[in-house]
Write a sequence for this structure.
């Protein structure tokens, strides 16, 4: 793999990790108060899905294989959608404020767009990854 593409991938992963971590921390914060805290099913599933975003980015990056990395990024993108759906339910149940919902939803949409774009980039690269070199 060329140095430039490795640096690009590393910088991109760091951006994903940073945003995914912030999303998880905010999910934990908003689900730690009021009725959201008492709704164990929704709270726990939302938290698990938010952690899955970051976990799959990290796991995929460490697989050293481009196709596996893309698959893990796809799972992470799916978890973004899952958290968005769960937050819509939490908002409709008045578990979170509209401003919190709007900001968090926008962050999740941005992360999902970033993941989609990065998967597209990886699909165009020819290097299969260190696992196969």
């Amino acid at each position: 793999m060329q140095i430039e593409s490795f640096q690009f991938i590393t910088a991109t992963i760091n951006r994903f990790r940073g945003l995914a971590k912030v999303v998880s921390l905010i999910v934990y914060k908003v689900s730690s108060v009021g009725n959201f805290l008492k709704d164990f099913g929704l709270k726990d599933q939302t938290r698990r899905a938010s952690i899955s975003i970051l976990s799959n980015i990290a796991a995929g990056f460490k697989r050293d294989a481009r196709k596996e990395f893309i698959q893990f990024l796809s799972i992470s993108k799916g978890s973004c959608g899952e958290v968005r759906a769960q937050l819509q339910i939490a908002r409709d149940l008045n578990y979170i404020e509209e401003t919190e919902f709007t900001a968090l939803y926008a962050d999740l949409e941005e992360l999902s767009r970033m993941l989609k774009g990065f998967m597209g980039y990886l699909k165009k690269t020819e290097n299969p990854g260190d696992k196969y070199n």
